[in-house]
Amino acid sequence: MIDSGGANIGSVMFALERLGVTGELTRDHGRIRSASRVILPGVGAAADAMTRLREYELGELIPTLTQPVLGICLGMQLLFEHSDEGDSVCLGVLPGKVERMSAAENLPVPHMGWNTVESLGETPLLAGVEGQHFYFVHGYAVKSSECSTATTEYGGRFVSVASRDNFFATQFHPERSGAAGARLIANFLGMNQ
């Protein structure tokens, strides 16, 4: 797991342990490049997270990874090209822009709580959990992307799962989403390189 300073690092590590996997938290380029799977967690602000990634030259490393990579919440947003949060240039692995969500009647921002994910087609990450509820906490989202594999409704549709090649991403927190989240993480861990 990439040590990006995200507040969800502990909960992701515990989710891995519950699946019998010992994760390693690191910024070491060699360890990251040689890992069989990589998770980019994140809770916080895009500008601060990108500053940390660039400080350790991880902004250059991450897009070159060839093993399965999973971005979670802010980790997902960082995989896109740009975020309105802090007018941040992000990693550019996935095409699209992260925008501030708009509040609507009875739908405050940030979007916090359980919501469903609607698959846009077959995706190995969502095998066995299509239509399940997952836990969200975010105020920014990608409204559309050619790499979207699932969307969620909250005052309008936004991308809740995206993938391209070996990169996968969830706007929600699978590590806090009970059995459905555990299954999704297991699906990721079972992917071939």
Short summary of the structure?
With 193 residues, the chain is α/β, with parallel strands linked by helices. It has six helices and twelve strands.
What does this structure look like?
With 193 residues, the chain is an alpha/beta fold. The protein has one domain: Class I glutamine amidotransferase (GATase) domain (Rossmann fold, 3-Layer(aba) Sandwich), CATH 3.40.50.880. Helices cover 24% and strands 26% of the residues. The chain is built from 6 helices and 12 strands. It has helices at 9-18, 29-34, 46-55, 58-61, 74-78, 178-189, and strands spanning 38-40, 69-72, 82-83, 88-89, 97-100, 111-116, 118-119, 133-138, 140-142, 148-153, 157-164, 167-170. The strands form 3 sheets. A 6-stranded mixed sheet has the order 1-2-12-11-10-7. A 4-stranded mixed sheet has the order 4-3-5-9, with helices on one face. The longest helix is centred in the last third of the chain and has 12 residues, at 178-189. The two termini are 16 Å apart. The mean pLDDT is 94.
| Largest beta sheet: strand ordering | 1-2-12-11-10-7
> How would you sum up the global shape?
globular
Integer-rounded radius of gyration: 15 Å
Would you state the CATH class? Alpha Beta
Helix amount, in percent? 10-25%
Domain module tally: 1
Oligomerization:
single chain
CATH superfamily: Class I glutamine amidotransferase (GATase) domain
At the third CATH level, what is the topology name?
Rossmann fold
Number of strands: 12
Order of helices and strands: HHEHHEHEEEEEEEEEEH
Strand share of the residues? 25-35%
Question: What composes the largest sheet?
Answer: 6 strands, mixed
Kindly report the average pLDDT value: 94
Q: Distance between termini?
A: 16 Å
* CATH architecture descriptor text: 3-Layer(aba) Sandwich
